[in-house]
Amino acid sequence: MSLPTASKLDLSAALNEDGSLNMEAVRTAVSTARQVQGSPKSANGGAAPAAASLPGAAAASTVGLLKTYFTPAWCAETESINSFFFRAGPETNIDTYANDARACSDATIIDLTKLATAAFTAMGNAGLAAKMSIPVPFGALCGPALPEICRLIAGLPQRNRLTHLRLEVVRIPHWVTADRLVPIRKLFRPYVRDVALMVDLFSPHDQLLVLDHVMLGADVSNAGAADEEALFQAMLTFQQRAGRRATYVLGLNHRSHLRRAIKAGIGEVGGTALRDNVSHLPDRITIVRREALLVDRPDTWFPQVAGRSTRQPL
């Protein structure tokens, strides 16, 4: 039985006084929420979509059919490719976490989160000072999968997760209001570097944009050869509305789009125009100066670092 979409989780008691996670309180909140009847209302008063938006909890895991990979991103603050977004799909160019992808079961999401946390642990053990984003669909954070996801995140080494881990809330339905995202932000903020919300760049959800203490991201993979000026204006507006909140844009598959994103002030940018997706994390950070990315010469993107060339596959 999946969680009724009208339910709201009361996570006010989810944190102990010492900052540790009260798993029993999380389980109680989920159990209480599942007893709430009715369906949510959209902004115009109609019933919001339910089953099609949220993954089913009862279905078996299909993680064995998926390939996991990482999308590298360049960070403007450090001028380096030091941010990696965990993703999964039947192929490395298909994203299971995308809004238009088929929803996964809770069991699949839990198994993917286990793989992501294992990769994060390995990254820490290797001493790679990078940032890693673990995506979790909104539906999985509003149902019986929540306690296990919390356990996996809280079980990671504290120093590493507070410095390098980002929780990315994806597949947020259009009917979701800010008050339903606040408990999720409140629950995970003490455990990770950032809580990020994935929004639609061309039609951003106003309810997501009013939240503070979050990072805002977008994926423009489906933009294709969209009008370059229109994309640039959309990114400018997105960055302006974000204000002081950090931003990222993925799916920049044209070099001109990558340059436009940098000029728009987006904090982190990624896509095949920068680097292809990779099946494993690199063993070091690649420094790429901003000026090099603004010219159409990828051969200038890989300077020497610590006496060794960084121009090699990730």
Can you put this structure into words, describing what you see?
With 314 residues, the protein is an alpha/beta fold. The protein has one domain (66-296): EAL domain (TIM Barrel), CATH 3.20.20.450. It has nine helices and eleven strands. Helix 1 (23-34) packs antiparallel against helix 3. The longest helix has 20 residues, at 106-125. It is globular and about 55 Å long. The protein starts with 22 loop residues before the first helix and ends in a 5-residue tail after the last strand. The model is unreliable at 1-7, 34-55 and 303-314 (pLDDT under 50).
Describe the strand arrangement of the main beta sheet, using strand numbers. Answer: 1-2-3-4-5-6-7-8
Overall outline? globular
**Average pLDDT, to the nearest integer?**
83
Query: What is the radius of gyration computed over CA atoms, rounded to a whole number of angstroms?
Result: 19 Å
What is the share of helical residues?
25-40%
Strand proportion: 15-25%
CATH-defined topology: TIM Barrel
Q: What distance separates the N and C termini?
A: 42 Å
Task: Note the total helix count.
Answer: 9
Spell the H/E element sequence. Answer: HEEHEHHEHEHEHEHEEHEE
* Reported CATH architecture: Alpha-Beta Barrel
- CATH level-four homologous superfamily name: EAL domain
